[in-house]
Amino acid sequence: MISDAADIVISVDGLSRSFGVMKAVQKVGFQVARGEIFGLVGPDGAGKTTIMRMLAGILAPDCGAIRIGGTDVVGDPEAAKARISYMPQRFGLYEDLTVAENIGFYADLFGVPRRERRARGRELMAAAGLDAFEQRLAGKLSGGMKQKLGLVCALIHTPQVLLLDEPTTGVDPVSRRDFWGILYGLRESGVTIVLSTAYMDEAERCSRLALVHTGSISHCDTPDRLKRLMPGALLAIISDNPREVRAILTGASGVLGMLLMGDRVHVHVDDATRRIAEIRDLLAEKGMSAELGVVEPGIEDVFVALLNAGERS
Ligand SMILES: Nc1ncnc2c1ncn2[C@@H]1O[C@H](COP(=O)(O)OP(=O)(O)OP(=O)(O)O)[C@@H](O)[C@H]1O
Ligand SMILES: [Mg+2]
Question: What is the tens place of the pLDDT at every residue in 43-92?
Fold first, then answer.
């Protein structure tokens, strides 16, 4: 749902791809406007990487169309690659090269002029907090630092479109914040970003999200609008034994789903006013004391609810 006036950079229609009998991606379609950060979210094996690889022009679809910046990715993947930078889920760093050498390697690959690459490399390394590690072998970096180096390498040329497949998996929260700082900076300069993520705080930061489930996009909208799609209400129950609370409420009438979150259980119910009293009684019967209230759903609650609703229907 983007306005007609928006400058559409990515346009995907009827995209499908199977591996043998496995229908990894089925009739996927979406559009992304310039400067958006478009998120693909969904369970393991949902088809996110397969979609990304087709967007990047390195995996041919069985059918469907992809246009990026006016180029037909399916018909002319080589032309499209000039506009795209793709960071795969397992980014190929050379472990026996230093940080600086890895960046140099990718700068060569993308044909970045020498003068430009030094300034750009410095800027990205500082933003990623990697400047003190320029001479360290990539193989000796921590997992999170490797991910950040992957991003620096993917950004060493200035792409029109950036495709990032789970770029922050294994990256600590502080580094993830740095990483998002880099992404926001790129967005400001007009780069269009598609990323997949398993982190719900990151999903909240995207301008729009596609929920990918068994190879299809079941929902696609802004995080706020997706939250409004959630039927019923969400209750938070705070208890010193949240697992016990979950066990007691499993199968209780009106309970559509539950999510354990630290010391609380998020309980998705069909009707808040009616179920609050019932749940209080149920917990009291088992001698449990718990605080109970209605809360605003987070994007994770919404996805669990929407996936459950899809499976029920
Ligand atoms: N090259 C391949 N050969 C055979 N099956 C494949 C291949 N690539 C992907 N698949 C299958 O297609 C489905 C979608 O996989 P994909 O990697 O796109 O999921 P994903 O959403 O990226 O998962 P994850 O969150 O685990 O990265 C899975 O069932 C996977 O096993
Ligand atoms: Mg994947």
Answer: 899 999 999 999 999 999 999 999 999 899 999 999 888 889 898 887 78
* Residue range 189-214, pLDDT digits in tens: 899 999 999 888 899 999 999 999 99
What strand order describes the sheet that includes 161-165?
84-87, 161-165, 192-196, 37-41, 208-213, 216-221
Query: What is the average pLDDT across 11-36?
Result: 97
CB of 21 closer than 6 angstroms to any ligand 1 atom: no
For ligand 1, say whether the CB of 24 is within 6 Å of any of its atoms: yes
Same-domain pairing of 107 and 244: no
- 47 Cα nearest atom in ligand 1: 18
Residue ending a domain, among 200, 226, 252, is: 226
Q: Would residue 312 count as lying in a domain?
A: no
* Domain shared by 236 and 215, yes or no: no
Q: Are residues 251 and 135 in the same domain?
A: no
Determine the Cα–Cα distance for residues 131 and 121; give it in Å rounded to an integer.
9
- Please state, as a whole number, how many other Cβ atoms lie within 10 Å of the Cβ of residue 24: 22
Q: Model's pTM, two decimal places? A: 0.86
- The tokens 């140099």 sit on which residue? 104
pLDDT for the residue numbered 157: 83
Mutation probe of ligand 1 site: the residue of 21, 26, 48 with most atoms within 8 A of C-beta: 48
Distance 310 CA to ligand 1 centre (A): 21
* Domain extent for 288: 231-296
Does residue 73 lie in a domain region? yes
Number of domains in the chain: 2
| Residue 306 maps to a domain | no
